[in-house]
Design goal:
The chain has about 325 residues and is α/β, with parallel strands linked by helices. It contains 13 helices and twelve strands. The C terminus is likely disordered.
C-alpha cells in the first residue's frame, strides 16, 4: 500500500500511540518567542505548517526571522536557515547583537560596534575584540551555547532548488536526530529548474513545494516573501494581496504575517493633532496577522524596533490607534 494512503482507523491508532507515549501537542508547536503572537497563532509555528512573512524593504523581515530562530534553538531544537541574501557571518553578528542588546541595560550595545569588532585589523581573538561592546562577551557565550543547533545554508538562485533544500534538511536531521525548523530567506529566490518564464507560475511551484515539504517533514516552514512594487511606495499599507508572484501564496500558507512601519499606516489624525506621535510611531513596527488557520486573523500587534541592536523587543502589544489601508496625502 502507498505510504501516503491510510485509513482514519490507522490515523486514530497513531494518535493513540503518541498520546500513550507522552508525546503531546506541545511537541508539534515551535514558539516564536514573541509575546502576544504565539497565543494568537495556536501556540507558535506548527509542525506541517507554512508561514509567510512579508514587509517593506528594510523593516526587519530577516531580523524577525533570525530572532525566531534564536528563540527556537535556545529551547534545544535545531534550525536550518536557507539564506539567499546574507552570509552566515552576517547572521552570527545579528545574533551577537541581539544577545548583547538584551543584556546591556545601558542600551550602548550596537550592531555597528559588533561589526567593527569583526572588521578591525588587530590580531586578537574575538572575545578580546568584543570587550569594548557592553554585554558582548556574555553574548558570545550565549551564542556558543546554541551555535551547534543553528545551521545556515548559503543558498543561491542558480543552484538551490527545492530538492537541494530537502537534502540539506535531511543532513541536519541525521546530525541532530530531530527535524529542524526550516527558514527560507526568501521564497522568490528558490531555483525552479527548467521552470516557467512567468514569475507567478514559478512562485506557485515553489510555495506548493514548500507546503508539501512542511507536511512531509512534520516541521514548520517559515519563509520570507517579496512584495509587489506598488506596495513598496511610501504611504501604502502592505497587505496579503501585495505578495509578489501568485495567488497561491495566500492559498497555500497556513499563517501570513505582514510587517509595516507604524508611522506609515496610522490614521492621519493621530499625526495631525499630536506632532510628537510622528517620532514615537517611527520606533514601532506593526505585525499584521493577515491569515491564520489556527485562530483569528485581521489582528495587528506592535513591536518596538531596536535595529541598532539587530532585534525587536520581544514583548508586543495590541495596536490601539486607528489604522488605514492606504494613506491619502492632501496638499
Amino acid at each position: 500500500m502507498d505510504e501516503n494512503l491510510k485509513t482514519i482507523g490507522a490515523t486514530m491508532a497513531t494518535a493513540e500511540t503518541r498520546m500513550r507515549s507522552g508525546r503531546h501537542a506541545a511537541e508539534r508547536l515551535w514558539p516564536t518567542g514573541f509575546g502576544d503572537l504565539d497565543p494568537l497563532i495556536g501556540g507558535g509555528l506548527r509542525s506541517g505548517g507554512l508561514t509567510l512573512l512579508a514587509g517593506p524593504h528594510g523593516l526587519g523581515k530577516t531580523t524577525f526571522a533570525v530572532q525566531v530562530c534564536r528563540n527556537v534553538v535556545r529551547t534545544g531544537r535545531p534550525v536550518i536557515y536557507f539564506s539567499y541574501e546574507h552570509e552566515a557571518e552576517d547572521l552570527f553578528q545579528k545574533l551577537l547583537a541581539m544577545e548583547a542588546g538584551e543584556l546591556d541595560t545601558s542600551s550602548r550595545a550596537r550592531l555597528t560596534e559588533i561589526r567593527d569588532a569583526f572588521e578591525g585589523d588587530q590580531v586578537s581573538p574575538l572575545e578580546e575584540r568584543l570587550r569594548v561592546v557592553p554585554g558582548a562577551v556574555q553574548a558570545l557565550a550565549n551564542v556558543r551555547s546554541y551555535a551547534e543547533l543553528m545551521y545556515v545554508h548559503r543558498s543561491t538562485g542558480s543552484r538551490t532548488d527545492l530538492a537541494a533544500i530537502r537534502r540539506q534538511i535531511e543532513v541536519v536531521r541525521e546530525e541532530t536526530g530531530v527535524m529542524p525548523l526550516v527558514v527560507v530567506d526568501y521564497l522568490q529566490k528558490v531555483l525552479v529548474p527548467d521552470g516557467p518564464a512567468e514569475e507567478a507560475e514559478r512562485t506557485t511551484t515553489i510555495v506548493e513545494g514548500l507546503k508539501d515539504l512542511a507536511i512531509d517533514i512534520a516541521a514548520p516552514v517559515l519563509t520570507i516573501v517579496a512584495a509587489e512594487k506598488e506596495a513598496l511606495q511610501s504611504g501604502t499599507r502592505m497587505r496579503m494581496r501585495h505578495l509578489r508572484g501568485s495567488s497561491a501564496l495566500a492559498y497555500e500558507a497556513d499563517v501570513v504575517l505582514v510587517l509595516n512601519n507604524k508611522v506609515d499606516i496610522v490614521a492621519r489624525h493621530h499625526l495631525m493633532y499630536d506632532l510628537g506621535n510622528t517620532e514615537r510611531f517611527r520606533e514601532w513596527a506593526i505585525l499584521g496577522i493577515e491569515k491564520n488557520r489556527f485562530g483569528r486573523d485581521g489582528i495587528e500587534l506592535e513591536y518596538k524596533k531596536r535595529f541598532d541592536q539587530g532585534r525587536f523587543e520581544s514583548e508586543g502589544r495590541a495596536v490601539s490607534e486607528q489604522l488605514i489601508d492606504d494613506r491619502v496625502f492632501l496638499d
